[in-house]
Amino acid sequence: MSFSTIEPKFFACRQSPGLAAKIVSEYGATLGNVIFSEYSDGEFQPALEESVRGRRIFIIGSTFPNADNLMEMLMIIDAAKRASARHITAVIPYFGWARQDRKDKPRVPITAKLVAKMLETAGATRLITMDLHADQIQGFFERPVDHLYASTIFMPYIKSLNLPNLMIASPDMGGSKRAYAYSKHLKCEVVICYKQRLKANVISHMELIGNVEGKDVILVDDMVDTAGTLTKAAEIMMEKGATSVRAVTTHGILSGGAIERIENSKLTELIISDTIPLKRASSKIKIVTCAPLFADVMQNVQNNKSISDKFIM
Fold first, then answer.
1. b/e per residue, 234-261, with b = 16+ CB within 10 A?
2. What span, in angstroms and rounded, lies between the C-alpha atoms of 212 and 179?
3. Co-location of 8 and 142 in the same domain
4. Among 97, 122, 218, 235, which one is least packed by beta carbons within 10 Å?
5. Quick one: pLDDT band at residue 174, thresholds 50, 70, 90?
């Protein structure tokens, strides 16, 4: 019997139980049992309650802060390695700490590189993730990285809106490549927002490069945190004559007062994936699940098949 014919096993971290259950259901399997023991000071210990010897296993969990979520992923990987799993694939829909991908000022860490090394040291033999904040983070790993694009799941939804005067926008210069990729497939124009920050999450100045008058604009980005950039961009675009402004972002971090900010903004709609659990429902927030995409890629990984047809961008 070849290794690929042995069914893999699936385990979920506690921060992503809903998404993990949907992914494994789409795969056509069931989640394995992980028991957590907790000490009174907050220390915890995961235990795999079934044998993984000689198997490929998939461990599913996003690593958004706090640090316990990353620690949990590392500990389950280590448990699987010590239980003689043959291949350990970390399925991390949202790769936390990815914004720290370079030294942008003196005496700061490159935390994304540190996280990559921690995952490899723990025992991960492969990573499957989606829309990394910076593509070059793939190079921080010495193991295979399957970097999926959320455009695969968002593009059908955008087309279903049938917007008459569609225009794609990037909320900053760094996202221009993503915006141009969307515009290429949707055959429409692009505008760019130029912004300057006082500090993290605080915008001091924003200008619009391009004409949005009479356009149905869709802002595309990899994540929405405080929603300051998106709501400010939507306000400027509506002032410049846009008919409507929507935003499509992969990872809905939505910290602090972000949801309230979106509800009170000029945005018609915010479309996000379910890589991070939504803190509370909102009439302006639409969730498009990434579970079928991850399940398909995991099946192809298990069966040693190409995944190149899963990429739109």
1. bebbbeeebbbbbbbbbbbbbeeebbeb
2. 15
3. yes
4. 235
5. confident
Cα–Cα distance, 291 to 235 (Å, whole number): 33
Confidence of residue 194 (pLDDT cuts 50, 70, 90): confident
Q: Which two tokens stand for residue 72?
A: 């949990």
126-130/87-92 β-pairing:
parallel
98-104-108-111 Cα dihedral, nearest 10 degrees: 10
As to burial, measured by CB atoms within 10 angstroms (0-12 exposed, 13-18 middle, 19+ buried), residue 49 is exposed
- The answer to whether residue 161 scores a pLDDT higher than 50 is yes
Strand, coil or helix: 302: helix
Backbone angles phi, psi at 214, to 5 degrees: 75, 10
Q: Which residues are catalytic?
A: 195
Looking at the fold, whether 232 and 120 belong to one and the same domain comes out as no
Which tokens hold the place of 206? Answer: 């924003």
List, for residues 6-64, the tens digit of each pLDDT value. Answer: 899 999 999 989 999 999 999 999 999 999 999 999 999 999 999 999 999 999 999 99
Report d(CA 116, CA 139) in Å as an integer: 9
Looking at residue 201, what is its pLDDT?
52
CB 232 within 8 A of CB 202: no
- Give the total number of structural domains in the chain: 2
Mean pLDDT, rounded, for 265-293: 97
**3-class SS shares of the chain: helix, strand, coil, % to 5:** 35, 25, 40
**Which amino acid would we find at residue 231?**
T
Q: Mapping DSSP to helix (H, G, I), strand (E, B) and coil, where does residue 15 land?
A: coil
Q: Which range marks the domain in which residue 8 is found?
A: 3-149+291-310
Residue 87: left if φ>0, alpha if ψ -120 to 50, beta else—which one? beta
128-146 residue pLDDT tens: 999 999 999 999 999 999 9
Distance CA 169, CA 73 (A): 35
Identify whether residues 279 and 306 lie together within a single domain. no
